[in-house]
Amino acid sequence: MKGVKNSKKKIEQTKEEVLKYYPVTVHDQTNSYVTREAEPGERWDADDIAMDTTVIGVETKEAGSTKGYYDLAVPFEVVDGEDYYLVWAVYSDGDSFHHEEGCHRHIELFKTKEKAETLARKIQVHNDIYNEHNSYRSYHDKKPTPKPKDYDTYSLKYLNEAGVEMNCHCSWNGYFERLTAINIDRVRKHGGNRRSGLIQTRY
């Protein structure tokens, strides 16, 4: 009986460790360029913008902390000298009056490259289905491939590093939005005070 109790206690401790989440700050820098200026006197017009982002590194706060801003929450602590894999999306956005290229969103951080690649492929397949159905018109000869039963246009489920099911909101699916790329960056701990930077240029 003692062995059973010890095993049960060990399982509970392991489960508690898996459910301990660390807030992640992604340090990056975005350069923003005005590619078309708004027409003077046009009330609703706005600048067209293009952006490019460079990821510098990541860091975690104390487990369970809710202080300040953070980008992600992961079931492990980021430590010095280790490689991690950040999955992030680049997409375009806008409205009837302006366009923005190079918008980005950090999605998940992994210890394992293979898990990061699995998520990236899943997002790409999800987006391919969206594009196929979004571009379909009744006069086309070929109908789109049927959507999977659990398919949701604006979100998808995936597994994080600990194997826990997570939900990803697909900001790049919409009338004006388009997915440009799914990136996987190998990153390390970055202990700087600057969370991110934005530099805007006009030309």
Query: Unreliable segments (pLDDT under 50, ≥5 consecutive)?
Result: 7-16, 192-203
The averaged pLDDT comes out at 83
Tally of individual domains: 1
Helix proportion of residues, in percent?
Answer: 10-25%
List SSEs in N-to-C order: HEEEEEHEEEE
Strand content: 35-45%
First-residue to last-residue Cα separation: 76 Å
Largest sheet: 7 strands, mixed
Describe this structure in words.
By secondary structure, this protein is α+β, with helices and mostly antiparallel strands. It has one domain (21-202). Helix content is 19%, strand content 40%. It has two helices and nine strands. The chain has helices at 2-18, 113-134; strands at residues 22-36, 48-60, 72-74, 84-94, 99-110, 155-159, 165-169, 178-187, 196-202. The strands form two sheets. Strands 1, 2, 3, 4, 5, 8 and 9 form a seven-stranded mixed sheet that branches. Strands 6-7 form a two-stranded antiparallel sheet. It is globular.
Summarize the structure.
This protein is an alpha+beta fold. The chain has helices at residues 2-18, 113-134, and strands at residues 22-36, 48-60, 72-74, 84-94, 99-110, 155-159, 165-169, 178-187, 196-202. The longest helix has 22 residues, at 113-134.
Q: Which SSEs are present, and which pair or pack?
A:
Layout: H1 2-18, E1 22-36, E2 48-60, E3 72-74, E4 84-94, E5 99-110, H2 113-134, E6 155-159, E7 165-169, E8 178-187, E9 196-202
Looking at this protein, list some descriptive labels:
203 residues, alpha+beta, seven-stranded mixed beta sheet, two-stranded antiparallel sheet, globular
